[in-house]
Amino acid sequence: MFRDVSNISGASTVGNSGAEGPWLTFGDGAAMQLSGAWTVANARRIDGLIRDMRVEPGAVQQLDLGAVSAFDTTGAWLLLKLADRLSITLPDGMTGAQHGVPELVSRVSSARSEPAEQPPGDNPFVAMLIRLGGGTVAAMREVGSMIGFMGAVVEAFVGVVRRPRRLRLTATVHHMEQAGLNALPIVGLISFLVGIVLAFQGAAQLQRFGAEIFVVNLIGVSMLREIGILLTAIVVAGRSGSSYAAQLGSMKVNEEVDALRALGLDTIEVLVLPRVLALFLMMVPLALFANLMGLIGGGLMAWVALDIAPALYVDRLAAAVTLPTLLVGLIKAPFFGALVGLVGCYEGLKTQGSADSLGRQTTIAVVQGIFIVIVVDAAFSIFFNVIGF
Q1: Do 165 and 104 sit in the same domain of this protein?
Q2: What is the pTM of this model?
Q3: What's the number of domains the chain is made of?
Q4: How far is Cα of residue 128 from the mean position of the Cα atoms in its chain?
């Protein structure tokens, strides 16, 4: 039924010449003529023709579809399989196609799944490289998607600035209370305890050199410049970032987000922007409160462990701390708040519709929020050090 056609000379037909088609006809030159109905009804037969065909790559450079009587998506998929066997690029490598066939072939080509990855075998180093590469690619895609989400939020914010009436003021104030005012106790308590620990550990080390008084400098500079705002951001990421992810994820599971879109409302403007603005505005008061509680805790421990009187502590603190020291921490606060809010909302809206997905996205929101805050804090530290601020 089939014969070797690796060296084409003259016309020959691959297939059953007694049937109505489909046929694969080799004519003069480097063209192959397709005929008959390339549809799902003839899929088994066409696949057999392609599988048993013996043609060297490069011997055929064009596919002539002028005699094809019918064509569907199955035929397009088989045509792509034939083109792969012949090393022909479609739709450029075909001629005589009826109207709409090239577009169908292009769509089927773009929808074809990528070839499965080859197993790495027993080599653990190769397997590790494959996992590392896959993780890197996934991380880069996640970064790109998150940057796009940030762009959508910025676009919504610009629209609200142009039309202030579009701002959901009630929702924004509500989230300011939930994420800011209600977070004061836990932020203050943690900062107070960290101030005590910092003073105690600093005193234990500085006593060796007879420089106990410099523990005030240690507490003031470290708390105002780095530790206060960093602790605040981490607490907010664990508290409010997870809350945002859980709230939006629940709305996604219950199809409330889809309902808002069906009503013609912008979900970024309605759900995301009030939450992000709330954290952006409330992080500075939270950071100031954290700094104050940390200094009080450090002063209390300095009084107990080193016998540094409160009046001396305050005088030494005023001499050690300058306005730039305070501003370095406060400048970072709004950025940290906005990043935590963005990550929480982004992960919440990625929920796929199950309780498992909701829990996973909430966990990811906390982890990514803390990670991004630490990375951005390191970048700010390098920047301020370079400019001498």
Answers
A1: no
A2: 0.66
A3: 2
A4: 23
